[in-house]
Amino acid sequence: MVSEAASGTGAGVRRVAGGGWAAGTLLAELERTEAGPSGPARLALERAGTARVCARDELMYLSGAPGTFVVLLLDGFAKITTADAEGLPLLVDVRAPGDVVGETSAFDGGPRSATVTAAQQMLVRRISQEEWLRWVAGHPAAAPAVHRTLAHRHRTAIRRTRLVRGPVVARLARAVLDLVERYGTPGPDGLVVRPALTQAEWSGLVGARERRVHHALRELSEAGVITSGRRRITVRSVPGLREIADRDGEEEGAAVRPARVVRTAHPRPGVPDRVPRKIR
Q1: 1, 7, 102, 267: which one has the fewest Cβ atoms less than 10 Å from its Cβ?
Q2: Cβ(58)–Cβ(1) under 8 Å?
Q3: Which fold has domain 165-276?
Q4: What angle (nearest 5°) sits at the alpha carbon of residue 97, between those of residues 202 and 142?
């Protein structure tokens, strides 16, 4: 259920690991354009519209439906889905705090191009089309920041075409690597992948049956590069995961062998000081 938020604005709510907005999100691009977090365009956007709290799995809008409002994400992740040939939801991307969804329909007045749901409880601001367009036109920093955000999404979409090529274990490694590099947070055993996804959602990202994804998760766990539990994946070795992700030309079903590890001189905070020597 969507309810009015207790907070009047999104200021100070942020964000992702490290305290900043994720790269490529609109609020990050506004800070870049205005050389800091206190620019007039950013502050105006964070106060636009109405603050709301979305419950986990709350539907923001449905693919094909009319609607022109924009949603600014201030805390929590959103899932972007389309329907497969059988009409089942297919996860195609996620949106992080600092980003917006719904801006395409606000610009062209067309129906929604995808379904957006809350991956967890979220704080958002719902902004009308009129107020969104007035904000874009009224702030010199707005249009360049929006353009860079859309360009970032386009580049990400092109990179994601690799997620459906090669062995399923390599596809899954790429998908996990993509999310952990964008939104991972330090945990006791490595970098925790965010948002938490089901195996069905991972299967949508990599274009494979859920059974194959389950098997690939087990392979990655046995190789020592991740640990996985219910809706939770922790990356123990980013270099090892990247090596598996590069297995474009290998036969499906080729064994993923455990990585030998060595101590590193400068471990990242919150990440085990181990990297694989090589996966042979």
Answers
A1: 1
A2: yes
A3: Arc Repressor Mutant, subunit A (1.10.10)
A4: 125
Across the beta sheet with 100-101, the strand order is 2-4, 50-54, 122-127, 70-75, 100-101
Question: pLDDT > 90: what percent of the chain?
Answer: 69
Query: What's the rounded Cα separation, in Å, for the pair 102 and 266?
Result: 42
Residue reference for tokens 């704080």 = 123
Considering only CA atoms, which of 220, 118, 130 is closest in space to residue 168?
Answer: 220
The pLDDT value given to residue 214: 96
Among 22-36, 46-60, 208-222, 241-255, where is mean pLDDT lowest? 241-255
DSSP string, 69-113: -EEEEEES-EEEEEE-TTS-EEEEEEE-TT-EESHHHHHH-PPPS
Do residues 125 and 52 touch, judged by C-beta distance below 8 A? yes
The DSSP output letter for 193 is: P
**Strand, helix or coil for residue 63:** coil
132-183 pLDDT, tens digit each: 999 999 999 999 999 999 999 999 888 877 777 889 999 999 999 999 999 9
The residues pairing with 186 across neighbouring beta strands, listed in sequence order, are 191
Q: Whole-prediction pTM value?
A: 0.81
Q: Give the confidence band of 85 by pLDDT, cuts at 50, 70, 90.
A: confident
- The dihedrals phi and psi of 35, each to the nearest 5 degrees, come to 55, 45
* Residue 222: count of CB within 10 angstroms of its CB: 13
pLDDT score of 255 more than 90? no
| Residue predicted with more confidence, 260 or 40 | 40
Other beta carbons within 10 Å of 218: 13
CATH C-level class of 2-161? mainly beta
